[in-house]
Please model this.
Amino acid sequence: MSKQPATSNNPRPPLVISASHAARLTALADNALERLPDIAGRLLDELERAQTVPDDQLPDDVVAMGNQVSFQDEATGRDRVVRLVWPSEANIDAGRISVLTPVGTALIGLRVGQSIDWPVTDGSHHRLRITAVDR
Model:
């Protein structure tokens, strides 16, 4: 698995994931390891460090599957609004991004106000900050 480095300046923020999503996401990542080793490995790393809570105890401000998420890419200043979905539901033109993309994997489990440094497809790192979550 590929570990995302945490530095003393930019430690990885704590994550919270519902128990049912954690189980399904783990199975999804395990099944994708051969096809998408980097992304699936990152997702497994994130799931491993996440706090898992009962589904009915997931806070409203946490990014979960199916949520609409507003975030800012602090490297570019660009604000984006997307819905985080399972791979079969993804449609970038409709603003639905798969959890098996670099951005989707970065967003899962974060809370409003949290930021995370994350690699993007061109090899650079961007800092994403969650500004709103709508269930």
